[in-house]
Design goal:
about 280 residues, alpha/beta, Arc Repressor Mutant, subunit A, D-Maltodextrin-Binding Protein, domain 2, 3 domains, two-stranded antiparallel sheet
């Protein structure tokens, strides 16, 4: 087995095809077939389930994939450290929810780049469940997600606590009148968003089950729609205070249980953090 065998193995897993994997790795299909057969003989297990349409990882294949990702990262890290000596250098992929991207990422970038200018940071925003999955699959090195979190295979560091507030148009009816509307209109992110889940929990606590959702994919869009009176929403108080104080937005508080949101940084348990990730994590310990 060599590193190229593992690259071919990952390509087959990602494309679901020996033919496509050959193209992705600039080789021929017969070589892909031979290398996968060699790996299966070496590990004594079938790595792929083959059908007429595609191939997919077996349980043994999924296990090898985890180790293959780790090996690839270790090799890349070794190259950086050999070339750069004791300097902290390399690539780091970090995930976060939309509001963290808008509110905190610029500061994170400035702080980390000042300390470690030879590290290339890449941020990705997504919903909580997708970020958790991406960390587990080695697609992200770490992610900032809302707590509570109890996922096997993940470590977490508490980063911050923030308060969530209801928002509505300041020139329209107050929240007490709005929640008596039939149907009540809410402006939210897609399913899986923690703010949407908290808002729906609050509505449920008020006995409100009939409401109409307008789904958007940006904070700015939600602010615009709420300001125009299309519906109510729920966002971090800090977002409104720091970026939208001049807008025609009214805020109302929730009970403590629903309004308090803790954010944690998650990383994988199954491997020690790289030097780059360890340096990033040290900013939040």
């Amino acid at each position: 087995m060599n590193l190229n065998d593992l690259k071919i193995f990952e390509a087959v897993a990602e494309t679901g095809s020996f033919t496509k994997a050959a193209g992705a790795t600039f080789t021929v299909q017969s070589n892909v077939t031979a290398r996968i057969k060699s790996l299966e003989e070496e590990f004594g297990a079938a790595l792929f389930a083959r059908t007429s349409r595609k191939v997919s990882l077996t349980p043994a294949g999924h296990t090898l994939m985890q180790y293959s990702k780790q090996i690839g990262k270790l090799v890349e890290e070794a190259k950086f450290h050999v070339q750069k000596g004791d300097k902290i250098a390399g690539n780091l992929k970090i995930g976060c929810i939309e509001t963290t991207m808008a509110l905190k990422v610029p500061g994170m970038l400035r702080q980390f780049e000042d300390l470690y200018p030879e590290v290339e940071l890449e941020f990705r925003s997504d919903i909580r469940s997708a970020l958790i999955s991406a960390v587990l699959k080695h697609e992200l090195d770490a992610a900032f997600v809302p707590a509570p979190l109890n996922v096997s295979g993940l470590d977490q560091i508490k980063v911050r606590t923030e308060q969530l507030v209801l928002i509505s148009a300041s020139e329209g009816p107050d929240i007490k009148e709005l929640i008596e509307s039939d149907p009540l209109k809410i402006v939210v992110f897609a399913e899986g968003c923690v703010f949407r889940a908290r808002l729906e929990s609050w509505l449920s606590s008020k006995g409100i089950i009939n409401y109409k959702s307008t789904v958007l994919n940006s904070i700015e869009g939600i602010i615009n729609f709420v300001e125009s009176g299309i519906g109510i929403s729920l966002l971090p108080e800090e977002i409104i205070r720091d970026f939208y104080t001049g807008r025609k937005i009214r805020t109302d508080t929730l009970n403590k249980e629903l309004s308090t949101m803790n954010t944690v940084m998650i990383t994988r348990k199954d491997e020690p953090p790289s030097r780059v990730l360890a340096a990033f994590m040290d900013l939040y310990r």
